[in-house]
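Q: Please design a sequence for this.
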């Protein structure tokens, strides 16, 4: 019976590991920014080490492999589990686009501290027994500081989950609400597994619960790829086209709308001079402004392609389009100064007003596009005169 249990436990961990590896290979920048995917891959890598150490440990614990592997395996297992929580915290905060947190030096220095404490306690437990030790009979026992490990791991998960709840309540975009609420799965799945483990111990329930949480988030990433822009988190061109086609037939003189096209000036020069990572940063800064614009003016925002964005807003929320354009420019100027950018980040903006129902958006887009290029030509003429 014992051998059957060990083989079954081992088999479950191997299956979980195989699924995690498949998920890891599917993670690309198409489903998130480079930093987000790096953090999520960190979660999967730490989870893989957790599975491997568990799979080997169960053979050692029941005498099928030398018991001397017990201490290093347990230390690695504890560190891997904590790294899962650490990287999950990192991924969640990046996903929530917590710019203020990441810009804070205090935050960047402090958030790894709980992970470092756990690593020190785990590595020293072979000598101190702080987190775990083995009895003379070879039984594994939790040490006196085991509770500290639990508290620090849970801290990462709770902080990230509470923040996700707060941000999901603030956003008015339904797809974003769903995306942020799904992030909470990484807290509740392990907690549920812990409750079940207390009732029915010695089952690989935590391994399966963590995989389930990873799979839920991965599935949502794949789903959001259809309508979201991975880099900026804004709606993408596909959703914008659908939104326009659905919205235009209901437009009237009483309920007109404005269609804005926005383009970053000299974007290629930013990429060529400062690198594509800085170009990505410029796109994110503009996107953050538009997200705020979207919230305050009940507007639809999307990345149109490359360095182009669109804003669609009902006229009742924008009394004067010129004032609205100037507000965008002022917000960008203020944010650029705070970010201390080494280059001038400016926009060319064109817009058109739609006052009658229309099934085809081509005319509206063309009129806004014409104004955009006039604005861009003015920008380049001014820049040329300034250089002289």
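A: Design:
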């Amino acid at each position: 019976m014992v051998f059957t249990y060990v083989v079954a436990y081992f088999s479950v961990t191997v299956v979980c590991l195989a699924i995690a590896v498949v998920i890891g290979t599917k993670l690309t920048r198409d489903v998130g920014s480079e930093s987000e995917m790096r953090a999520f891959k960190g979660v999967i890598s730490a989870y893989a080490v957790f599975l491997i150490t568990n799979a080997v440990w169960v053979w050692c614990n029941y005498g099928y492999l030398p018991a001397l592997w017990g201490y290093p395996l347990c230390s690695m297992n504890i560190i891997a589990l904590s790294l899962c929580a650490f990287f999950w915290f990192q991924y969640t905060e990046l996903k929530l686009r917590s710019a203020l947190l990441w810009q804070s030096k205090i935050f960047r220095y402090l958030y790894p501290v709980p992970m470092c404490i756990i690593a020190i306690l785990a590595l020293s437990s072979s000598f101190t027994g702080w987190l775990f030790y083995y009895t003379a009979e070879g039984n594994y026992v939790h040490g006196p500081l085991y509770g500290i490990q639990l508290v620090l791991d849970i801290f990462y998960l709770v902080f990230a989950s509470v923040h996700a709840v707060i941000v999901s309540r603030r956003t008015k975009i339904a797809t974003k609400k769903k995306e942020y609420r799904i992030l909470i799965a990484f807290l509740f799945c392990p907690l549920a597994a812990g409750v079940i483990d207390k009732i029915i111990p010695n089952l690989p329930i935590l391994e399966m619960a963590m995989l389930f949480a990873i799979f839920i988030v991965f599935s949502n990433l794949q789903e959001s790829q259809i309508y979201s822009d991975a880099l900026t988190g804004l709606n993408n061109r596909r959703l914008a086209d659908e939104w326009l086609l659905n919205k235009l037939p209901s437009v009237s003189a009483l309920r007109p709308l404005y269609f804005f096209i926005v383009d970053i000036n000299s974007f290629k020069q930013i990429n060529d001079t400062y690198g594509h990572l800085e170009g990505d940063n410029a796109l994110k800064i503009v996107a953050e402004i538009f997200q705020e614009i979207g919230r305050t003016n009940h507007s639809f925002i999307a990345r149109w392609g490359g360095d182009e964005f669109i804003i669609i807003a009902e006229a009742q929320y924008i009394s004067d389009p010129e004032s609205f354009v100037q507000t965008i420019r002022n917000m960008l100027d203020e944010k650029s100064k705070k970010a201390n950018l080494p280059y001038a980040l400016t926009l060319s903006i064109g817009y058109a007003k739609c006052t009658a129902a229309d099934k085809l958006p081509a005319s509206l887009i063309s009129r806004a596009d014409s104004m955009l290029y006039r604005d861009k030509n003015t920008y380049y003429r001014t820049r040329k005169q300034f250089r002289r």
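Q: Thanks. Anything notable?
A: The longest helix spans residues 34-61. The CA atoms of residues 44 and 72 lie 21 Å apart.
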